Amino acid sequence: MSRPLPAPPVPHEYESHPVPVHTQPMYLQPYHDTPTYGADESFGRRSSVSLQDETKAQEQPSAFEESTQQHGDADEEYYAPAMYEDARPPKYRNGIWSYDDRRAFQRQPLWAKLLRIAAFIFIFGLIVALSVVMLIVIFLRPPNIGLQSLDLPNSASQIQIQDQAFAVNASLTAVISNPNYVSAKINNLTAVPYDPNVRTTPLGICNVPHKTIEARKNTTISIPCELSYNVQEDSNLSVIKDIVNRCGLVQGSSKQDLQILFDTHVTIQFLAFHIPISISPTISTECPITRKEIKQALGDHADILNELGLGNLARRDEVPEEPRVPFHERLRALAMRVMRTLTRGPDDFETDPTLHDSSL
């Protein structure tokens, strides 16, 4: 059963007649784009609310009286929400989305919801990936590369000699230190050996295509090398002269270790970044060749041997020295000769040839 509306209050005597309103000061009078009642016809001039307009405004019924006249004795809940809809406080919000936004999201179809979730995952993953890449780029440090030793074959028979050229297979040991927290890869490592005093004639090549470098560790790799030298490529014979002098093959020179400079170029890959590194270290190694091998490589080129100072040494190598007989063997042979001389007659000297041996 509906509740009766409260009776309107009884107006007082002074409220039965409108109170005259004085004209507002000039600085409080509003601006109007169109002329109002009682104002000039010119556009944009000031106008004030007249006494008749104020009286007419007071005689108009209020919103409560209109709703009462319209609905009569209807329930208050029927028209109250429509009257005070704008006066209600906003509904509770949790986060950046309002209540109406959430209701709009709930009305979306399933494919739109899945697309929104996928877009969120993609954008979030992209932000995380870019953050990681930026941290790596900021704190990334290049690795340290050092060449440790050059391993040559122990046997001289492994040296290939052909057409005034030497060739030998060797192994270059390198140590790479990675100070970063991510592993790296060597895409290509090339080392070209040179004589430190002659940087124009290469002495072979060393190459390794792919290697993995562990993070925060020292990685030792073995690089296969092919050391070679061609006399025809060395016009001034500068390289072979330096080798002959350091190996002590020339009279008056002392034997030393060979100095080999490796012009090294390496490309290291960190994730999607390629870092080129170039170094030129020098390694010492024992002399791998002898006078006989040099003479065999040069062949009949006596002029080259003489220019290198190996002409006399080469001719001496052609006539090998006979091994010397030990002293006790010579003494024993002399005693046997004396015994034979004392025990035999004069005719035995003609039949026994050992008695005429002058080598002793």
From TrEMBL:
InterPro entries: NDR1-like (IPR044839). GO terms for biological process: defense response to other organism. Keywords: Membrane, Transmembrane, Transmembrane helix. The chain crosses the membrane at residues 117-140. Residues 45-71 have a biased composition (Polar residues). It comes from the Eukaryota. Residues 1-73 are annotated as: Disordered. Residues 1-11 have a biased composition (Pro residues). The keyword Transmembrane helix applies. Its main location: membrane. One of its GO terms (cellular component) is membrane. It is found in: Membrane. This is Late embryogenesis abundant protein LEA-2 subgroup domain-containing protein. The lineage of its organism: Eukaryota, Fungi, Dikarya, Basidiomycota, Ustilaginomycotina.
